[in-house]
Amino acid sequence: MSADASTRTTTPITLLCGPLGSGKTTLVRQLLRNTRGLRIAVVENEYAETAGVERALATRGTPLADDPDLFVELPNGCVCCSVKDRFLEAVERLVGRYGARLDHVVVEMSGLADPGPVASVFWVDDELESPVTLDGVVCVVDAVHFPLSADAQTPELRRQIGYADRVIVNKTDAVSAARAASVAEAVRRINPHLRALATSLERPGDGDADLLRFVLSVSTVSREALLSCVAASLAAPAAGASSVHETHTHAGDVRALVLERSAPVAFRALRSWIGELLWESGLDLFRVKGVVRGERDRPYALQAVNQIMSLEEMGGDGDFARVAGAAGLSQTTLVLIGRGLDEDALRAGLAKLAEA
Fold it and tell me: Which long-range contacts (CB under 8 A, 24 or more apart) does 146-154 make?
């Protein structure tokens, strides 16, 4: 959960995305009904005709029904584009007003919203001293209507899952166990590195505390979360000095790749190469996560979302083997999720870095 108010320096923010009708508002209501003492603010982004309705649905029977200032509606546009400035202003006002008394901000995005541009706003370096930090992106999908065929999945749906750290497969009480398992498998074909939770948000029952923890304790930028994600991406030990492999088949035009390299990687060369992939190559990269064995055997953490990149030495005084070995990593491992990934070009690019 959130850190204690006396020690926390920033307010964590969680982005909820997913198709219309998947259960995002139901999830918000469940979080607010079972806060476990946390003070949670909600920013709602829906269409003008639903203004007021969403507030009533989400806050009914929750503490926010008596504290309306903690629920902010942003109709007439999408937070990823047309009302992005208003969204940022709303978050800043919330944090400025409540300060350390605010434990978490949850943003419910519209069904068509792209979480990438919004997530990148909060993907900032510590030295910028932002009062808000991204905790994670959580996508909600509907087990009843989720299209299993990649051809039937919309680009918006694939992007939302591609950016997500975690996915909730909702309405499992209305489908068979086999159908629920097929939906979870289809989700992981798009993004094989996320964690998934199958449930019925209308009646989570004894799982309330687990649901709160699953949604609000992602800590996507943390060292622990990075090591866990990268380690989980390895389906089998790598063979040879260098390899690039797909952990799963791609869904439509969205692909997930894992790149590995045993030799040390030049820090500046890696930074330049990832920057080129993000900004100049024409690739549509959603997320990049990596644990890098750099010069002098130093471990580096690589993370990127949308077009924002962070590459920095991992904390502690250990070498690569000590830091990454605990997670089962023995060499540089990069995880890329996006559209139009060229396996051969990526293999060649990684090889050049090791030669630099």
Answer: 146/183, 146/186, 146/187, 147/186, 148/182, 148/183, 148/186, 150/189, 150/250, 150/251, 150/252, 151/252, 153/190, 153/251, 153/252, 154/19
d(CA 352, CA 329): 21
Q: Tell me the CB-side half-sphere exposure of residue 328, using CA atoms within 13 A.
A: 11
pLDDT class of 239 with cuts at 50, 70, 90: very low
How many whole angstroms separate alpha carbon 323 and alpha carbon 317?
9
Q: Is the pLDDT of residue 13 over 70?
A: yes
Domain ranges of the chain: 11-221, 224-355
What CATH number was assigned to the domain covering residues 11-221?
3.40.50.300
* Rounded CA separation 346/244 (Å): 8
Instruction: State which fold the 224-355 domain adopts.
Output: Hypothetical Protein Yjia; Chain: A;domain 2 (3.30.1220)
- Checking if the pLDDT of 49 tops 90, the result is no
For residues 238 and 334, which has the higher predicted lDDT (pLDDT)?
A: 334
Distance CA 243, CA 48 (A): 50
Rounded to two decimals, the pTM is 0.82
